[in-house]
């Protein structure tokens, strides 16, 4: 759920400033943080590694996310969607945690690739990204891990990344590599709606569902366009501000959900600040089709004394959240 992407060697030089701007239509409450020079390194070896991943067959099938959401809705259930930072505290623990969350009944798993320059995250996820990068996490390593884990999961996986590194890597190569690793969807928070078609050409060719976000400050005339463009589900950001646990879910979310339901029949999942069983229960009553929990998950796994203790804490929390949702 957190908005971070890794310091990737396969990602090339920075693009034009217009491409680096965070589009207000997508996440209008966030300000862009200037990118650091070390985030734009590239080597032929790492580019070749990404290309090699793309040659393998993928276990993912088309529309797994949308189908999962639709099936749950028909049963009167709400999707539980945890977020993890890949590589925190290490990739082996990330893999184990994904398997645990799947066993606990989580319906979709969102996996973020850590980036040295996050734009929308609070202290929990920023610290998580720092720890992961210190372990040497790269996109290639994340996708390699994902390729090993996905066959063990019932839940489809959404990969989180930003738009600029995709452009630098190349939309086609990136999409093929993500598909080959087994991911079912892609979440790009700063992807401008008017540029969706450019990336969508390659995601649709690789059976990747491209999820779009709307926020409390998204202009009303854009909400319908975003909902129509979104695949898998529509991601409703619950608040203006950065990620991180909150004491309560703002009452405005009920109205935002109602407004979205008036312009789309697609499933709507709510994220940002969701951190307690009471939160997910409230959102279910308000009509959310899915709940996304990021910082609260990351904190339990990444800040534990040992990876083993982190996994125990994560499993306990996931089961508590699951129990708070409609059966």
TrEMBL record:
Coiled coil region boundaries: none
UniProt cross-references to Pfam families, sorted A to Z: Trp_syntA
Chemical reaction(s) catalysed: (1S,2R)-1-C-(indol-3-yl)glycerol 3-phosphate + L-serine = D-glyceraldehyde 3-phosphate + L-tryptophan + H2O
Pathway note: Amino-acid biosynthesis; L-tryptophan biosynthesis; L-tryptophan from chorismate: step 5/5
Description of how the protein assembles with itself and partners: Tetramer of two alpha and two beta chains.
Keyword Amino-acid biosynthesis annotated: yes
Protein origin, superkingdom: Eukaryota
Documented EC number(s): 4.2.1.20
Annotated NCBIfam families: trpA
Key words of the record: Amino-acid biosynthesis, Aromatic amino acid biosynthesis, Lyase, Tryptophan biosynthesis
CDD domains for the chain: Tryptophan_synthase_alpha
Family: Belongs to the TrpA family.
PANTHER family xref list: TRYPTOPHAN SYNTHASE ALPHA CHAIN, CHLOROPLASTIC, TRYPTOPHAN SYNTHASE, ALPHA CHAIN
Protein name (Swiss-Prot/TrEMBL): tryptophan synthase
